[in-house]
Amino acid sequence: MVLIMVELTTILSKMIFRHLNFETKIKWVNSISIILIHLLAILGFFTFDYITKWRTFLWGLFVGGLGGFGVTAGAHRLWSHRSYKAKLPLRIFLMLCFSIAGQNNLYNWVRDHRVHHKFSETVADPHNANRGFFFSHVGWLMMKKHPQVIEKGKKINMDDLFEDPVAAFLIRNFWWLKLMMCFFAPSVVPHVFWGETWYWSVYSQAVCRYVLNLNFTWLVNSIAHMWGNRPYDKAISPSENFVVSLLSIGEGWHNYHHTFPWDYRAAELGKFSVTTFWLNLFAKIGWAYDLKIPSDNLVRMIAENRGDGTYVANNHLAHAEIHDLDINGNIRLRRT
Asked: Mind telling me which residue stretches traverse the membrane in this protein (predicted)?
């Protein structure tokens, strides 16, 4: 059965790539494995009994949320953009959560993301949206990088990651942490604690939940770079997309993020973001601090000069001034 599915995925991958014009060679091992696990996940979505296995389903949502938080608050906002600082307990928690997501090694993740911001929508962008939805969503992981991506990536300063002992530990021990936190631990819990079968314990967590975690992150690279309004800078592709923000727990306000990448919220105050909600709670207990935000005057000025005109009409903070975070981590507002 497995051999048949591998053969089918090989044929399917060749059909997909045959009609698309790619600039680099295909990584067949990556391509086949990605297609295969997606086919298995689709089968699982349709055969899983959501009624009788509700605890396993809820566990998958919980684990998926932890993995998403590790990507958004950890790899993205902390280690890629340094938009806030985190105490040791929070950094350890983020390390474990990022391992649950099971994505690339933190070093590669951060380097590629910094290159993406610096050379967005050019041939040096690892997931250049100008090459189409498929490429920006997953295709970039299924083929070798464009030479410009490699060249620009070598020039990115990554010293700060190794200055953080938690990030350095994660980089050195990435594979065993990924195997333990992404596949083993989530699969053991349903069987041990409520008697789920080993088949569905592994299938639901190591395949279905994992695939959803991957795609919710990939949506930021694809859909959030193509569809939505651009209130802050109409000259760039990243867009504001509520659906992507919902699925990626706060990363879909992408036009704002690319305009103000140092903002720890990755969105303007008032926009839906689960990640920001939790970071604010961690700020209250002192685990997160030095949370960076731009002034409201700066946001308003840039939106009025560069935006597509939707900022004043749609943003409920168009007449508010952000002063700063108070001692409890709350943002103070004063109506103008």
From this structure: 28-51, 57-76
